[in-house]
Amino acid sequence: DALAHARTKLARKGVDLLVLNDVSGGAVFGQPDTSVLLLAPDGSVAGPHAGTKAQVAHAVWDRIVGLRTAAH
């Protein structure tokens, strides 16, 4: 499943955050809305963050800013 694959990829890449946008059903293509999950290396999953693609992008950006702020 997409979540298991995302967890494996997160560990393999060694990144601070992975955004899972499951497009397997094709429902998001050509549509104004989407939904994502945010995975962290500690195993936590935030979301779903859903809304317009711009709203979701802002939610992802807010998480990135939070990670960067916590690192300093």
Describe the structure.
With 72 residues, the chain is an alpha+beta fold. It has 2 helices and 3 strands. It has helices at 2-13, 53-71; strands spanning 18-20, 33-39, 45-52. A 3-stranded antiparallel β-sheet has the order 1-2-3. The radius of gyration is 13 Å and the shape is flat. The termini are far apart. 10% of the residues are buried. The model has no long low-confidence stretch (mean pLDDT 91).
Portion in beta strands: 25-35%
Sketch the major β-sheet.
3 strands, antiparallel
Summing up helix and strand content along with how strands pair, one would put the structural category as alpha+beta
Helix residue percentage: 40-55%
Order of adjacent strands in the largest pleated sheet: 1-2-3
Which characteristics define this entry?
2 helices, 43% helix, single chain, 72 residues, flat
Please sum up the structure shown.
The chain is α+β, with helices and mostly antiparallel strands and 72 residues long.
Topology record:
Blueprint: H1 2-13, E1 18-20, E2 33-39, E3 45-52, H2 53-71
Antiparallel strand pairs: 1-2, 2-3
